[in-house]
Fold:
Amino acid sequence: MTRKERYKAVIAYFSEAMPVAETELKYENNFQLLVAVMLSAQCTDKRVNMVTPALFEAYPTPAAMAAVSEEEVLAYVKSVSYPNSKARHLVATAHQLVERFNGEVPETLDELTSLPGVGRKTANVVMSVAFGQARMAVDTHVFRVSHRIGLVSDKANTPLAVELELVKNLPEAIIPRAHHWLILHGRYVCKALKPDCLSCGLKSTCAYYNKKS
Structure:
């Protein structure tokens, strides 16, 4: 199977099996989305969704979060991974949003990555989910699943390289949805330690499965 054929098969499968694919993070506006994505780094969405309701109630806007100390924010996020640095970044980012962007979340990669604690992956998620841009955020799930299925080459050994190959080969209109397809497939089927190959609808397409069979 050529890579072009594999992409066609994967798109056809997910379009039918997962026509609606969205982030599992809970949020009500762009600021909440940005905060939730920042908290989700090396942490599960389930854990983030447990802490954000109280956090958002206490600090519903960038101005509200910018007005408090890191210690006050830390009290709400202490159960996530790396809570101290995340609390520091959240308060610093809230300040930046107020001072530089009139309290609004910016839409460009350069602007988003200029915010404390916001890297390319976080920025791509925000641009894709909040603004519908054709951005492919590559987390551990996307990285793993892309390689296992055979969507990217062995030379794509960094998140950026995987991102560029996926964006090059996927139709622009479905890139935001494809990001969630790969994440959710990696989260629930193509797991890191024990992929559930027998129940996977991509067996005939997957390079990993056919190689080990």
